[in-house]
Amino acid sequence: MNPGDGSTRDRLLDAAIALFSSQGYASTSIAEIQQACGLSPGSGALYKHFPSKNALLREATQRQVDRIIAAREEHDRTRPADTREALRRAAERIWDTIETNSELLRVMYREPEAIEGFSAELWSAVTASAYDRMGAALSGATAAGASQVEDPEASAALLLASIAYFPIVRMLIEQTPGNISADRYREAWLRLAESVFTGRPPT
To answer: Which of 129, 193, 199 has the alpha carbon at shortest distance from 155?
Structure first.
């Protein structure tokens, strides 16, 4: 594959996800995807790169999964020892992951049948591993005597669900919980999360 082919593939993937997100997977035609890339609608150029519209969606999903995993690995390499700062960076990474993948996640939420068979890969990359990792971290804090929670895994799931709720609501209905700003929401979450991890009252 020459660089031009790679560029065209990426343009097709980007255009397809944007259209799937805005007007729906089922309602988007191959011709519309090609036209959005500046290709002739009737040329069949998409089929030089993808055998079908579903194959295009599958590759777009895998591309995002790969990017999420790479970002998570970078997060692990630079994770600070300070509890509050580690929680802050985790919250920022979760929000960034949801916002960066918002177009694909809209398809996942609104037309789950479109990604049936490979939605588990996206779900695992976006959230499932985060639940496991947060649960392990809180279990470690509990075992060390810092946290006093009775059920670390459930408490970690609650913390993650609450921090992910804000960008998901904003993504799906363009509203924020309680009309609270992003900064206020994140800071309140940080105070509560730090209290759960350290056993100290929230400030």
So the answer is: 193
Q: What are the residue ranges of helices labelled H in 24-82?
A: 30-36, 53-77
CB 47 within 8 Å of CB 107 = no
Phi, psi of 37 (to 5 degrees): -95, 0
Looking at beta carbons, which pairs linking 93-100 to residues 24 or more positions away fall under 8 Å?
Answer: 94/130, 94/160, 94/163, 94/164, 94/167, 95/163, 95/166, 95/167, 95/182, 95/186, 96/71, 97/68, 97/71, 97/126, 98/126, 98/164, 98/167, 98/168, 98/171, 99/167, 99/171, 100/67
Q: Does residue 1 contact residue 15 with C-beta atoms inside 8 Å? A: no
Q: CA–CA separation, 71 vs 101, rounded Å?
A: 12
CB contact at 8 A, 202 and 192: yes
Q: Domains in the chain, please, with CATH?
A: 1-50 (1.10.10.60), 60-198 (1.10.357.10)
Query: What does the pLDDT look like over 112-153, one tens digit per residue?
Result: 888 777 777 777 777 767 888 889 999 999 999 999 999 999
How many Å apart are CA 181 and CA 128, to the nearest integer? 26
Q: Is there a contact between 101 and 68 (Cβ–Cβ < 8 Å)?
A: yes
pTM of the model: 0.81
Q: Report CA Rg, the chain.
A: 20
Q: What type of residue sits at position 97?
A: T
